[in-house]
Amino acid sequence: MIPEERVPPGQHLTDHLPVLHEGPVPSFDPATWSLRLFGLVEEKVVFSYEQITSLPRVRVVADIHCVTTWSKLDTVWEGVSFRQLMNHVRLLPQARYVLVHCEHGYTTNLPLEALMDDDVLLAYRYDEVPLTPEHGYPLRLVVPKRYFWKSAKWVRGLEFMSGDRPGFWEQRGYHNEGDPWREERYSRSLPTARPK
Fold it and tell me: Are 88 and 74 in contact (CB under 8 A)?
């Protein structure tokens, strides 16, 4: 497949992974860090960083696309598949959406069904080495089929919900779905800041 067929409309290729985010890079203490799975679950589950990195590791090679119009092909991520994580929590039947909670109060929202794709993971390695803090270490969500703001950095919690609830950029005018092939960039007039 030629690269043009792998690049959505309005995108251009880059050979590096740009550093974009909202807020400062947070500090990380493995002794106190945790990932919470809560909301519409039978019982809240909390993982330590050691527990997360002890789960079976997957490797995903994916093309990624940012709403700021860059795309990078064949990126390599390693971490815990979202599906694997779901083996450790019992969801209530009405759970249909997930609000991803991150450092500094950042959030993004996704349908649970989208997160169950084979290529979705919580990554702690990129390009064969540990993820850098600027790119989301210790844990970053990677959802290749959506614009990259949905691949939230510095994940700390997954809240399972029956109804959808817009996240940080979605509240500021970004499209709720964020499908790059449909150019679902904005749902209303452009906000004053861009997602990073």
Answer: no
Residue-level pLDDT, tens digit, the chain, 196 residues: 567 789 999 999 999 988 877 778 999 999 999 999 999 999 999 999 999 999 999 999 999 999 999 999 999 999 999 999 999 999 999 999 999 999 999 999 999 999 999 999 999 999 999 999 999 999 999 999 999 999 999 999 999 999 999 999 999 999 999 999 999 999 865 544 555 4
77 within a domain of the structure (yes/no)? yes
* Cα angle 96-178-52, degrees, rounded to a multiple of 5: 60
Tell me, yes or no, if the pTM score tops 0.90: yes
Name the pairing type of β-strands 12-13 and 70-81.
parallel
Full domain range(s) for residue 185? 50-196
CATH code (residue 127): 3.90.420.10
How many domains is the chain built from? 1
* β-pair partners for 159: 38, 99
Domain assignment of residue 21, yes or no: no
* Amino acid identity for residue 97 in this structure: Y
**b/e per residue 33-71 (b: at least 16 CB within 10 A):** bebebebbbeeebebebeebbebeebebebbbbbbeebb
Residue 133 located in a structural domain: yes
Alpha-carbon Rg for the chain, nearest whole angstrom, is 16
Residue 44 lies in a domain: no
